[in-house]
Specification:
- This protein has about 230 residues and is α+β, with helices and mostly antiparallel strands.
- β3 and β4 form a beta hairpin.
- Strands 3-4-2-5-7 form a 5-stranded antiparallel sheet. Strands 1-8-6 form a 3-stranded antiparallel sheet.
- About 35% of the residues lie in helices and about 40% in strands.
C-alpha cells in the first residue's frame, strides 16, 4: 500500500507542467557595442570621359543626319586607339518653340559617346583629336573594379583585426574576457570619381595628368559580451 502511494506521488510529479525559466533571470555578461574602421588607398587607374555633339536646325531629319554623321566619324577615329573602349551614349532630340508661341521654330539634337581606358595618356590624345568636332562634358578618374576590389579586401581584413583588437582592449580594461556576439561590415563601396579640373585642350596637347588615389573604407560594427575571468 505504501509503495503504491509513493508511485502515485512520483507519477503526479512527472506529469505536472514544468515551470519555464524567465529569460531575464538568466545570468549574462555586460554587452558592449562599438565599431572599428580601416582604410586602404586604391590607385585611380581608370579614366572615363564623355564627348558630345549638339546642333540645331529647322529640319529634324537633316539635323539627325548631320549629328549622326559626326558621331560616326568620331567612333571611326576612336578605332585608331585600341586601348580606349568607346561606345555610343544617349541621344536626344527636342523642339525649339518660337518665343511666346506653341509653334515649333527649330529642332535641337544632342548625341554623345562614352570613352573608358586604363591608358590615361591614350585617352587624352583621343580627346584632343575628337574635340575638333565634339565637346567634352566630363573627364573622371577612379579605381578600376579589380583595383577597388583588392583594396576593399585588404580594408575588410584590417577592419576585422581592428575590431578584435578593440574588443580585447575593452575586455582587458574591464578585467575580464569577451566573446563576439555580432559583427556587421559596411562601406567598401565604389569611391567617388575624381573630376579632372582642366580643359580638354590641355589634355589633348599632352599636359601630364596625375591620377592620384582614392580611399576605400570598411567599417566593422557589432557587439561583444564581457565575462569575468
Amino acid at each position: 500500500m505504501r509503495i503504491a502511494s509513493v508511485l502515485a506521488i512520483l507519477l503526479i510529479a512527472a506529469t505536472a507542467p514544468a515551470r519555464a525559466i524567465d529569460p531575464c533571470c538568466r545570468s549574462a555578461g555586460t554587452v558592449v557595442e562599438f565599431s572599428a574602421e580601416a582604410s586602404r588607398a586604391a590607385a585611380n587607374d581608370l579614366a572615363r570621359a564623355s564627348a558630345f555633339v549638339e546642333a540645331s536646325g529647322p529640319d529634324a531629319a537633316e539635323l539627325a543626319r548631320r549629328v549622326n554623321a559626326t558621331i560616326a566619324a568620331a567612333l571611326e577615329t576612336a578605332k585608331s586607339h585600341p586601348t580606349v573602349r568607346t561606345r555610343s551614349g544617349t541621344t536626344s532630340t527636342y523642339p525649339v518653340y518660337a518665343k511666346g508661341t506653341s509653334r515649333i521654330d527649330a529642332w535641337r539634337m544632342r548625341s554623345e559617346i562614352l570613352l573608358e581606358s586604363r591608358d590615361v595618356p591614350a585617352l587624352a590624345r583621343l580627346i584632343g583629336r575628337l574635340q575638333a568636332s565634339l565637346g567634352v562634358s566630363q573627364i573622371l578618374l577612379l579605381p578600376s573594379p579589380e583595383t577597388r576590389r583588392s583594396a576593399e579586401q585588404e580594408a575588410t581584413a584590417d577592419a576585422i583585426a581592428a575590431f578584435k583588437a578593440r574588443a580585447g582592449l575593452i575586455a582587458a580594461s574591464m578585467g575580464g574576457t569577451y566573446r563576439i556576439v555580432r559583427v556587421a561590415l559596411s562601406g567598401g563601396g565604389r569611391p567617388p570619381a575624381v573630376p579632372v579640373l582642366r580643359s580638354a585642350a590641355a589634355m589633348g596637347n599632352g599636359a601630364p595628368i596625375e591620377p592620384g588615389e582614392s580611399t576605400v573604407t570598411v567599417v566593422a560594427s557589432g557587439e561583444i559580451e564581457l565575462s569575468p575571468k
